[in-house]
Write a structure and sequence with these properties.
By secondary structure, the chain is of the alpha+beta class. The chain folds into two domains: 3-45, no CATH class; 59-109, SH3 type barrels, CATH 2.30.30. It is built from two helices and five strands; from the N terminus they run ααβββββ.
Amino acid sequence: MNAEEYLKGLNEHDPVFEIDTEYEYTERQLINFAERYHQKKLKLLGIGGVSKSFASGAKVQITHCIKGHEFEIGEIVEIVDYHKDDLWLAKSLERSNQQWYINEEEASVC
C-alpha cells in the first residue's frame, strides 16, 4: 500500500481529513500528511505523554543533564507525573523538596 492509498483509507473513516485531489502530491508529502493526521488524533484523544518506559511512580536513575535539572548524575529519582512537551516531573528520593523536569533521554528506569 502506498501513502496515497493509506490516506484514502483514513478518509473513509474520518472525512474531516481531506487532501486536494486536483493537486499531485509527492509520496513524502502524503506521508507527512498522514503523520500530522496521527499527531492530531493523539492530541484529541489525550494520550500524549504515553511512554514506553516512564510512568508515574517509576524509579529512574539520572544519566544526563540536557534540560537543566539539578539532580546529580547517578541519583535515583521518582517520576511524579507527565507534564507536556515530553517532560516528566521527577522528585529526588535523597533530598526532600527537590523536584525538576526531565525527559527520557536524561534517565533510565531502574
